[in-house]
Amino acid sequence: MSLTLSDTSAGGALQRASLLVWGATLAAIVLLWIAAGRLGWIADPADVFVIPIEGWLSAFVDWLSDDLSFGLFTFRDLTRALAWVLEIPLSFFITILSRGTEVPLGAERTLTLPPVPWFAILFAFVWLCWVWGGRRLAILAIAALGYLVVFGQWGSAMVTLSSILVAVPVGVAGGMALGILAYRSDRVARGLTPVLDLMQTVPIFAYLVPVLVLFGFGPVSAMIATVIYAMPPMVRVTMLALRGVSPELLELGRMTGCTRRQMLWRILLPSARPSLMVGVNQVIMLSLNMVIIASMIGAGGLGYDVLTSLRRLEIGNGLQAGLAITLLAILLDRMSHAYFAYRETPRAQRRAQGVNNAAMIGALLAGAYVVGLIFPALTIYPDAWVIDTSPFWDGLVTWINLNLYDYLDAVKTFLLIYVLVPVKRFMLDVPWLAVALLLAVVGWRLSGLRLAVTVAGMAAFIAFTGNWEKAMVSVYLCGISVLIASTIGILWGLLAARSDRAYGIAVTSVDTLQTLPSFVYLIPVVMLFQVGDFSAMIAIVLYALAPAVRYTAHGLRRLPSEIVEASRMSGCTPRQMLWRVRLPLALPEIALGINQTIMMALSMLVITALVGTSDLGQEVYIALTRSNVGQGLVAGLCVAFIGMISDRLITAWVARRKAQFRIE
Amino acid sequence: MTQDSPLADNAAAPPPDDDTPAETKLSCKGLWKVFGADEDRARRVIQGHDGVIGRDALEREGFAAAVRNADIDVRTGEIFVVMGLSGSGKSTLIRCLSLLLQPTSGELIFDGRDLLGCSEKELIDIRRHKMGMVFQHFALLPHLTVLGNVAFPLEIQGVSRFDAEERAHKMIELVGLGGRETDYPSGLSGGQQQRVGIARSLATDPDLWLLDEPFSALDPLIRREMQDEFLKLQRMLGKTIIFITHDFDEAIRLADRIAIMHSGDIVQIGTPEDLVIRPANDYVRDFTADVTRAKVLSARSIMRPADEGTSFAGDVAPVDRVTDFAARAIETEAPLAVRGRSGRLLGQVDREAVIRVLAEAE
Ligand SMILES: Nc1ncnc2c1ncn2[C@@H]1O[C@H](COP(=O)(O)OP(=O)(O)OP(=O)(O)O)[C@@H](O)[C@H]1O
Ligand SMILES: [Mg+2]
């Protein structure tokens, strides 16, 4: 860049070279397009040649589960043992929170052990909420749990809660253990980082397939999938948190003669605790996000309710259960935040001082349990008092279909005919080789040969595993959704950056949007627009909106105030200020927001397979129903690669731009 | 110090009221520290030159040293201050002395023991019992109370909680934080936090007390107050102290001896007075130029042989600084007598000499 500024003739030469490159690329693309008519493999190699990676992967997993043996025990034994170990706490919680159990006493008689009465659990929650978060949180708890009780979601919710109660500690402990290993050994860290990157871009569905094959169908494998999904951020947070511990504290540890273990437990972990808490919160939220998806491989509870209702298009039931999950998610999120804040407050300033909360709640639950043993009827909220709102919602859907159908359908048809379908056609028409070439050139210009090879290689993987066509459908759906989401998001972000209040509102809304499990977005969309690409698009837009808003607003607000003042002093009108100063400077930040939006859109994309798309997501979904590991993993990898291509390119662009501006 | 010793007067040669040179607590010879992945090669290069290699020669080999060929003897019971600007290598030096950093080359003797030859286990033991360190940014553990922080080094050693806390209570009283035991560090001011750091570093009753810019993060008024209390503490405890600072005034106030560092080199080691009267080079002279000389110069350095039969207005000790007796000296025409510990007359300080110092004239 400095070259262009200092030496105009050299700058001119550079520009000419750049023009030449782009011109040549364009020409090559056109040629490829023409050639694609004759040579099918240029357009899409699927019919001509496919690398059978799917088969290899399936065979590998079969080998794992059938043949691998460690001498004393087989791999299958190992998975069984793991499942068995996790089964114990899970069924314990399900028994005491939701189902109860029957204990045979001698020949005929059985003793019925009921679950802990609902009101005791509710009271325990409300009490903890009050202690940790005060009145507002307690009211939230009453409202959320009250909803579960009154609208008949309690039983399912307790099953869901049980799996969270097991999955979260396991995920946190596992994530911390891996994070600590990675902190201690650079080699582990180097090995782990790309795996974590990949795991966070591979869509959730793709995990389900191998878990299903290795662990079978059931609540335990659902929980294992949940843990696998929720753990990577904890690993990352742990690594970062430990690395973030101030070097002075490490020196303190060494000067006081700490052993390695004392260093870890008495210095590193306690002083990293606030950051670690962020990870714990993420594990909770991701576990909840996984609730519905995990029910595809056997988790019961609320997720199962939502999934079956969606499949049967019983909107009312789905909405009720979906709302229950949402409320549970919001409550657990707020509770965890409140708890962390509570831990950081000095003992003397805490609420309910002198009360041993654990003992009190233990006594309460035990007491209530005895009461429930004597009067079993009390343990369960009477069915007769349950309010079922589903007829109302179903009626609303019918009403919408009768009265608004024409308008909604007109919008939908218009967009389909004039936007969605043409874009889809175009995308399907572009030869893969042309796309790969374009990506390579962009990568090369942005960063260098390495990036060019990486992105083109990923595109080639997609093409040669026979997934090009489906990938293009994904790109088209995702692309349009991202475009819309970014537009709305940036506009909203611009508004939000204007005042503290607007910013506060935006951040709160966006936070709430992000607490909702991705599945929940599908319900109202299907309610209004039925199934199909259009509904998928709306759901994706809603889900992926948040980062665009957040990053835009943040990027605009973060600008150094001197720059803003300087431009005001040089007489910028507000409009000039926005277009000439603020936006260009905030652009890198906004680009990162769009990057996140793309990632979220991709993760939602797979879920929208449920409302009938024909893309990679569908491919994963089909693989799941057929337990085809290879197909699922490869399609999942393709989705991940689409995400990684855009991520690498955008990151490279941002880096270049920042280097130009010398912003750190 | 103040006790009269019958032997003092008889001891002949060096000025009899000098403290007998104390034994050496910690000494390093030819100490080098080079950062970077290539440290082994750097060691070979340095040792290839017998530990003496010029800056340029080393740079030609591709190395920049943070500490270069440092020779230091810290005497038992003294306050040894290392002074230098930011990046001059002070922290690196003190970290090499405590082996928080492995020196690239050189030798290091603590209490007659070769530290570099110690096993990790012995080193842990030495750090647990013999050394205490105070950090620039306090390094308090945020999850522990004041009491917990001060008791921490003892608990690490496996001292029972009861004993550790009892000792911690004493230390907290000592630094004047009694009553704040259950507070968390986040609720304390900077000065209070550093008091906790000081109490903690003293909890194990170390012989060697290391302080890396302990007061630099505090604002000037508090810094002043902390310096006074630090001196008071040291008068009670008599530790051997290595104190890092980038503030020359602080160095002069606190130091028995000062080592001045400049881009890795130790430029000069001496008493504050030495540095002012006999700066080793222009770099040191620049530092000392702004020093209020009356605060540094002692009676001994401005006295002259006593005239026969003069009547004195009063007595001063040879180590007394000019500021301590300036008022007395100016009040009267008569000179002040400089007397050793046992009352022997060493010389006299004239009124004019004092005025010259106060006027900052050479
Ligand atoms: N871990 C490290 N790796 C590489 N270089 C380092 C490292 N630590 C210090 N240095 C370099 O060594 C030199 C001396 O640093 P040091 O921290 O000892 O200086 P200092 O005198 O303590 O400065 P300050 O007053 O800022 O604390 C500096 O040039 C610094 O950049
Ligand atoms: Mg330093």
TrEMBL record, chain A:
<feature type="domain" description="ABC transmembrane type-1">
    <location>
        <begin position="471"/>
        <end position="650"/>
    </location>
</feature>
<feature type="transmembrane region" description="Helical">
    <location>
        <begin position="450"/>
        <end position="468"/>
    </location>
</feature>
<dbReference type="GO" id="GO:0031460">
    <property type="term" value="P:glycine betaine transport"/>
</dbReference>
<keyword id="KW-0472">Membrane</keyword>
<keyword id="KW-0813">Transport</keyword>
<feature type="transmembrane region" description="Helical">
    <location>
        <begin position="204"/>
        <end position="231"/>
    </location>
</feature>
<dbReference type="InterPro" id="IPR035906">
    <property type="entry name" value="MetI-like_sf"/>
</dbReference>
<feature type="transmembrane region" description="Helical">
    <location>
        <begin position="111"/>
        <end position="130"/>
    </location>
</feature>
<feature type="transmembrane region" description="Helical">
    <location>
        <begin position="519"/>
        <end position="546"/>
    </location>
</feature>
<keyword id="KW-1133">Transmembrane helix</keyword>
<feature type="transmembrane region" description="Helical">
    <location>
        <begin position="81"/>
        <end position="99"/>
    </location>
</feature>
<dbReference type="GO" id="GO:0015226">
    <property type="term" value="F:carnitine transmembrane transporter activity"/>
</dbReference>
<protein>
    <submittedName>
        <fullName>Glycine betaine/proline transport system permease protein</fullName>
    </submittedName>
</protein>
<dbReference type="GO" id="GO:0043190">
    <property type="term" value="C:ATP-binding cassette (ABC) transporter complex"/>
</dbReference>
<feature type="transmembrane region" description="Helical">
    <location>
        <begin position="354"/>
        <end position="378"/>
    </location>
</feature>
<dbReference type="InterPro" id="IPR000515">
    <property type="entry name" value="MetI-like"/>
</dbReference>
<feature type="transmembrane region" description="Helical">
    <location>
        <begin position="398"/>
        <end position="419"/>
    </location>
</feature>
<feature type="transmembrane region" description="Helical">
    <location>
        <begin position="585"/>
        <end position="612"/>
    </location>
</feature>
<dbReference type="Pfam" id="PF00528">
    <property type="entry name" value="BPD_transp_1"/>
</dbReference>
<feature type="transmembrane region" description="Helical">
    <location>
        <begin position="161"/>
        <end position="183"/>
    </location>
</feature>
<feature type="transmembrane region" description="Helical">
    <location>
        <begin position="426"/>
        <end position="444"/>
    </location>
</feature>
<feature type="transmembrane region" description="Helical">
    <location>
        <begin position="475"/>
        <end position="495"/>
    </location>
</feature>
Automatic annotation (TrEMBL), chain B:
<keyword id="KW-0813">Transport</keyword>
<dbReference type="Pfam" id="PF00005">
    <property type="entry name" value="ABC_tran"/>
</dbReference>
<keyword id="KW-0472">Membrane</keyword>
<keyword id="KW-0067">ATP-binding</keyword>
<dbReference type="InterPro" id="IPR005892">
    <property type="entry name" value="Gly-betaine_transp_ATP-bd"/>
</dbReference>
<dbReference type="GO" id="GO:0016887">
    <property type="term" value="F:ATP hydrolysis activity"/>
</dbReference>
<keyword id="KW-0997">Cell inner membrane</keyword>
<comment type="subunit">
    <text>The complex is probably composed of two ATP-binding proteins (TmoW), two transmembrane proteins (TmoV) and a solute-binding protein (TmoX).</text>
</comment>
<dbReference type="InterPro" id="IPR003439">
    <property type="entry name" value="ABC_transporter-like_ATP-bd"/>
</dbReference>
<feature type="domain" description="ABC transporter">
    <location>
        <begin position="52"/>
        <end position="288"/>
    </location>
</feature>
<protein>
    <recommendedName>
        <fullName>Quaternary amine transport ATP-binding protein</fullName>
        <ecNumber>7.6.2.9</ecNumber>
    </recommendedName>
</protein>
<dbReference type="GO" id="GO:0005524">
    <property type="term" value="F:ATP binding"/>
</dbReference>
<dbReference type="GO" id="GO:0005886">
    <property type="term" value="C:plasma membrane"/>
</dbReference>
<feature type="compositionally biased region" description="Low complexity">
    <location>
        <begin position="1"/>
        <end position="12"/>
    </location>
</feature>
<dbReference type="InterPro" id="IPR003593">
    <property type="entry name" value="AAA+_ATPase"/>
</dbReference>
<dbReference type="GO" id="GO:0015418">
    <property type="term" value="F:ABC-type quaternary ammonium compound transporting activity"/>
</dbReference>
<dbReference type="GO" id="GO:0006865">
    <property type="term" value="P:amino acid transport"/>
</dbReference>
<dbReference type="GO" id="GO:0031460">
    <property type="term" value="P:glycine betaine transport"/>
</dbReference>
<keyword id="KW-0547">Nucleotide-binding</keyword>
<dbReference type="InterPro" id="IPR027417">
    <property type="entry name" value="P-loop_NTPase"/>
</dbReference>
<dbReference type="InterPro" id="IPR051921">
    <property type="entry name" value="ABC_osmolyte_uptake_ATP-bind"/>
</dbReference>
<dbReference type="GO" id="GO:0006970">
    <property type="term" value="P:response to osmotic stress"/>
</dbReference>
